């Protein structure tokens, strides 16, 4: 995944992506399958280690499942809502600064022209 050129991960149209894939057949025919095989084998090794540890220490599976549920909830719900709240605070701050600047300019004009 990390050795794949970034052009493969961009959101271009299909024709450009097909042109890129077929222009350099050495990458598509030799390197890309090796990267896929390495990634697949690494995932299988991680799952095998996890299965062995869970078989020997069943309590580990309980903690891992609870941690994964917590992590999923954190990434799915808490962080996006935290981002939305910070954006709302920035918008309110910008509106406050704009309003206070307008009030200051209005007061300055009243003092300047005496109206």
UniProtKB/TrEMBL annotation:
The keyword Hydrolase does not apply. SUPFAM superfamilies: ABC transporter transmembrane region. This is ABC transmembrane type-1 domain-containing protein. Signal peptide: none annotated. InterPro entries: ABC1_TM_dom, ABC1_TM_sf. GO terms for molecular function: ABC-type transporter activity; ATP binding. It comes from the Eukaryota. The chain crosses the membrane at residues 42-75. Gene3D superfamilies: ABC transporter type 1, transmembrane domain. Residues 1-115 form the ABC transmembrane type-1 domain. GO terms for cellular component: membrane. Keywords: Membrane, Transmembrane, Transmembrane helix.
């Amino acid at each position: 995944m990390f050795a794949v050129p970034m052009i493969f991960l961009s959101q271009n149209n299909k024709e450009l992506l097909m042109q890129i894939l077929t222009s350099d057949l050495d990458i598509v025919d030799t390197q890309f399958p090796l990267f896929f095989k390495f990634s697949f084998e690494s995932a299988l090794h991680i799952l095998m280690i996890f299965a062995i540890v869970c078989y020997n220490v069943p309590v580990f599976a309980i903690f891992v499942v609870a941690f994964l549920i917590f992590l999923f909830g954190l990434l799915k719900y808490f962080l996006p809502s935290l981002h939305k709240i910070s954006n709302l605070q920035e918008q309110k701050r910008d509106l406050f600064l704009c309003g206070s600047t307008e009030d200051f300019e209005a007061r300055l004009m009243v003092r300047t022209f005496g109206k």
